[in-house]
């Protein structure tokens, strides 16, 4: 295994090096860097041409320029652009914004894409499956910039206007309830009568919930409150344990998960002061602490026999409860954020990655980022979600047809165990490769999305570099983007070998 | 083609010849092509896609004419005029029995832009350009990808290593990035150069697929047989291996065309692809995205055409994939 990783690392390094050479030579020829200077009046032209030629080493052949760039890039100096600005500094400000966008979009696309793909595979040829397939095809065919502009011009304005007076009209309530009912009943495979019961129950519950929320002005000042947090935590504990080990209230994993949820609810009150205005580091430490404590609870309640199921059930429940508490805090900060003098109720922003000069608590900053990230991420996820659902569905269908799945069923395992332990684990292996491949598509998508939403981020580096015939910003962009692709491909290869013994041992 | 096998799929086969009947068999023999065609025509999405794509193609090719050939639409994409009724579209599809004005075509079905150009003619020109670029990209990428993939799969040793490393290098560069740089070079030289250049940088996916398939085919007996009678490598690759991966190639052509439409329009949106005075669907959206709140139709029509083309081609590709490789469609028992 170590030899495999070392060899893979070595090859990747050379491939990446060759790619930088290709990229540099192409980038250096993309446009004429002297074009603008040539338009200058006679008295300034010579000096401007000489400055740019000197700064960009245009008197040297392109290969020499590449080597010069490579030499300084290895020491961490990415050079200056045509105007003489430091590219390192430009990259430093551009990178965090793009990383936020890409990370949010990737995680959401993977989580939702896989979940939807698995469900539509398990319900093959159902109405749910057919609709998912059709929507996936539409998403495949959507031009990102068109969707982005639509979201920016209509959805953002609509949501912001709605937030001025956040009550739901009856039509909205009915539409949302029917949609919820349709999705919930579509996900289940049952006979017709149960399906209609589920449809009616979920749609009705949703309608009541929405009417109550709308009437009490919840949307203007949202929050969950201790009761809802506790209920959600316990419901989450039951759901997670059902997936991990089955629905049985006397089983050790279930007890571990419920205790974890209870501890989480206690922490909701105990950590109140810490959570008033934390920083990111504190939250990460708390998340680690949560995982550790939950694992301890799982270990203790699991006993000798059930540890392998109780620990994951407890840890997942703990993290879920922590997330619920996090969401509650963010929602509670909403009213204050919307009333802030720099926001004035326009919560969904369409320009830039954050509000300039915004001062507030950690929660308000989170909301600020979320408000700016929402639409660009939505656009990116819409386009990238489709490939995850399609691949997951195909991969799951292939696995579900295998003999060992039939064997698992034949020996009397529950359907839950067959799917989660036998089918899902193997069905997810090809998805690792897709993730690596998709990151390149997402980076390209990020360039377009940033342009639509007016972010000054990595995409700007690329575009300015191309327009000015300046390879330095393009190479800075490529070092990050290509580097990410190489690293992801490598991780995927190693993960693939790790997950699939046929490759590891051959 | 034998008559009995030309029947549509799904109906029970007609009783075979006396010979078949004598053996107690009731099966019509079909060629590979007939099987694929039958499976393709069973795919409803693919048929709808074919119809939609055919419609868009015909509309774009005949309406404003192609090059010197005149079309049936009397306005040109460059001719300006008086802006009538704020340039609103005159196309009506609301039937009369629902209180609408019935299906009307009108003077300017897609409306007019701010300088009075007929927007239907403009969109048709954009569609022509985008489709031309997409076809060129798809063709060039598929030819290169097939040759490289087949050679990398068939040869062992250094040839394979070099070809695969070249592919790896290309994969390392995000498609949009390398396409943007290449398009910046080629954009000013017209759409044909642009299409070919984009094809030169988007062949990696096809190469990977073809190589994977050739890798398993090269171990088959018929290849060994060909090699043992002294057939040259060139002949084995192009006469024995490539025809066997034609399914993958056809599917990848369609998917490459769909991707190329989105790539070209995306690049044009960034201002890098097709350069004025020529236009493309992506370019139109960039030009009019600021006019969106006042003249939304200038923004909608090109977008709908992009979606229409990409969606129909994707559905055709899916139908072809199912037709050539029906394994994925097995109903679970």
Automatic annotation (TrEMBL), chain A:
A single BP term in Gene Ontology: transmembrane transport
Membrane topology: Multi-pass membrane protein
Sequence ranges assigned to domain ABC transmembrane type-1 in this UniProt record: 95-496
GO cellular component terms, semicolon-separated: plasma membrane
Protein's name in the database: ABC transporter permease
CDD domains documented for this protein: TM_PBP2
Taxonomy, superkingdom: Bacteria
Matches recorded under SUPFAM superfamilies: MetI-like (SSF161098)
InterPro entries listed in its UniProt record: MetI-like (IPR000515), MetI-like_sf (IPR035906)
Species assigned in the record: Streptomyces lonarensis
Record has Cell membrane as a keyword: yes
Subcellular location: Cell membrane
Transmembrane segments: 99-122, 134-155, 167-189, 196-218, 224-244, 256-275, 281-302, 309-327, 373-391, 434-454, 474-499
Keywords: Cell membrane, Membrane, Transmembrane, Transmembrane helix, Transport
Primary location: membrane
Family to which this protein belongs: Belongs to the binding-protein-dependent transport system permease family.
Family annotation (PANTHER family): DIPEPTIDE TRANSPORT SYSTEM PERMEASE PROTEIN DPPB-RELATED (PTHR43163:SF6)
From TrEMBL, chain B:
Protein name in UniProt: ABC transporter permease
Family: Belongs to the binding-protein-dependent transport system permease family.
Gene Ontology annotations of biological process type: transmembrane transport
Keyword Protein transport in annotation: no
GO CC, any one term: plasma membrane
Pfam families found in the cross-reference section: BPD_transp_1, OppC_N
Keywords: Cell membrane, Membrane, Transmembrane, Transmembrane helix, Transport
Entry's transmembrane regions: 47-69, 133-155, 162-185, 191-210, 241-263, 298-317
PANTHER family with a match to the protein in the record: D,D-DIPEPTIDE TRANSPORT SYSTEM PERMEASE PROTEIN DDPC-RELATED (PTHR43386:SF1), OLIGOPEPTIDE TRANSPORT SYSTEM PERMEASE PROTEIN APPC (PTHR43386)
Start and end residues of each stretch annotated as Disordered: 1-22
Gene3D superfamilies: MetI-like
Domain of life: Bacteria
SUPFAM superfamilies, A to Z: MetI-like
Membrane topology: Multi-pass membrane protein
PROSITE patterns per UniProt: ABC_TM1 (PS50928)
Taxonomic lineage: Bacteria, Bacillati, Actinomycetota, Actinomycetes, Kitasatosporales
Residue ranges annotated for the ABC transmembrane type-1 domain, each copy included: 131-317
Localization of this protein: Cell membrane
């Amino acid at each position: 295994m170590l030899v495999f990783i070392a060899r893979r690392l070595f090859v990747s390094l050379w491939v990446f090096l060759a790619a930088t050479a290709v990229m540099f030579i192409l980038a250096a020829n993309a446009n004429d860097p002297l074009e603008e200077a040539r338009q200058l009046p006679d008295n300034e032209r010579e000096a401007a041409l000489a400055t740019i030629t000197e700064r960009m080493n245009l008197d040297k052949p392109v290969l020499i320029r590449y080597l010069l760039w490579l030499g300084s890039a290895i020491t961490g100096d990415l050079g200056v652009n045509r105007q003489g600005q430091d590219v390192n500094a430009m990259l430093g400000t551009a990178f965090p914004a793009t990383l936020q966008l890409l990370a949010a979009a990737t995680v959401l696309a993977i989580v939702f894409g896989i979940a939807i793909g698995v469900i539509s595979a398990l319900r093959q040829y159902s109405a749910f499956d057919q609709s998912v397939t059709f929507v996936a095809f539409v998403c495949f065919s959507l031009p990102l910039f068109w969707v982005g502009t639509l979201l920016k011009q209509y959805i953002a304005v609509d949501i912001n206007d709605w937030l001025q007076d956040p009550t739901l009209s009856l039509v909205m309530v009915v539409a949302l309830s029917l949609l919820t009912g349709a999705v919930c009943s579509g996900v289940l495979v049952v006979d017709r009568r149960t399906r209609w019961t589920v449809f009616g129950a979920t749609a009705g519950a949703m309608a009541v919930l929405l009417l109550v929320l709308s009437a009490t002005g919840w949307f203007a000042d949202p929050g969950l409150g201790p009761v809802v947090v506790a209920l959600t935590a316990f419901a989450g504990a039951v759901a997670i344990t059902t997936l991990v080990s089955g629905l049985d209230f006397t089983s050790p994993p279930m007890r571990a998960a419920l205790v974890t949820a209870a501890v989480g609810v206690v922490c909701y009150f105990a950590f109140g002061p810490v959570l008033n205005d934390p920083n990111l580091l504190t939250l990460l430490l708390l998340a680690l602490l949560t995982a550790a404590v939950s694992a301890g609870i799982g270990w203790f309640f699991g006993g000798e026999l059930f540890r392998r199921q109780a620990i994951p059930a407890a840890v997942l429940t703990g993290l879920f409860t922590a997330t619920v508490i996090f969401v509650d805090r963010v929602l509670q900060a909403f009213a204050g954020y919307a009333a802030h003098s720099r926001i004035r109720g326009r919560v969904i922003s369409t320009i830039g990655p954050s509000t300039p000069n915004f001062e507030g608590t950690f929660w308000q900053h989170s909301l600020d980022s979320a408000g700016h990230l929402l639409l660009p991420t939505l656009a990116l996820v819409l386009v990238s979600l489709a490939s995850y659902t399609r691949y997951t569905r195909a991969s799951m269908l292939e696995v579900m047809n295998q003999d060992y799945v039939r064997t698992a069923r034949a020996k009397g395992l529950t359907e839950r165990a067959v799917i989660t332990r036998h089918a899902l684990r193997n069905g997810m292996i090809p998805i690792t490769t897709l993730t690596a491949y998709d990151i390149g598509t997402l980076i390209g998508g990020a360039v377009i999305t940033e342009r639509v939403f007016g972010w000054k981020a990595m995409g700007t580096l690329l575009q300015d570099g191309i327009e000015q015939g300046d390879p330095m910003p393009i190479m800075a962009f490529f070092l990050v983007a290509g580097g990410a692709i190489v690293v992801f491909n490598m991780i995927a290869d190693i993960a693939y070998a790790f997950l699939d013994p046929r490759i590891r041992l051959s | 083609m034998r008559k009995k096998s030309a029947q549509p799929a799904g109906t029970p086969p007609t009783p075979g010849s006396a010979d078949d009947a004598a053996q107690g068999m009731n099966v019509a023999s079909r060629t590979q092509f007939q099987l694929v065609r039958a499976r393709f025509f069973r795919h409803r999405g693919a048929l709808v896609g074919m119809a939609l794509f055919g419609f868009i193609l015909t509309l774009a090719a005949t309406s404003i004419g192609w090059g010197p050939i005149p079309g049936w639409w009397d306005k040109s994409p460059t001719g300006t005029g008086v802006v009538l009724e704020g340039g609103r579209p005159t196309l009506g599809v609301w039937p009369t029995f629902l209180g609408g004005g019935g299906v009307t075509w009108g003077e300017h079905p897609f409306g007019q832009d701010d300088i009075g150009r007929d927007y239907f003619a403009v969109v048709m020109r954009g569609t022509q350009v985008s489709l031309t670029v997409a076809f060129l990209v798809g063709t060039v990428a598929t030819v290169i990808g097939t040759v490289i993939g087949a050679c990398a799969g068939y040869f062992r040793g250094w040839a394979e290593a070099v070809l695969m490393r070249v592919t790896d290098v290309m994969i390392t560069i995000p498609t949009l990035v390398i396409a943007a740089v290449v398009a910046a070079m080629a954009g000013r030289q017209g759409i044909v150069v642009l299409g070919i250049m984009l094809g030169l940088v988007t062949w990696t996916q096809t190469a990977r697929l073809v190589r994977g398939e050739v890798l398993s085919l090269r171990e088959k007996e018929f290849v060994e047989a060909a090699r043992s009678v002294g057939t040259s490598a060139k002949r084995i690759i192009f006469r024995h291996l490539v025809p066997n991966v034609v399914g993958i190639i056809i599917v990848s052509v369609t998917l490459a065309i769909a991707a190329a439409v989105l790539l070209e329009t995306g690049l044009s949106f960034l201002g890098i692809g097709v350069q004025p005075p020529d236009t493309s669907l992506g370019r139109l959206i960039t030009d009019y995205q600021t006019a969106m709140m006042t003249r939304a139709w200038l923004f909608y029509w090109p977008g709908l055409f992009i979606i229409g083309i990409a969606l129909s081609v994707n559905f055709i590709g899916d139908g072809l994939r199912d037709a050539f490789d029906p394994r994925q469609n097995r109903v679970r028992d």
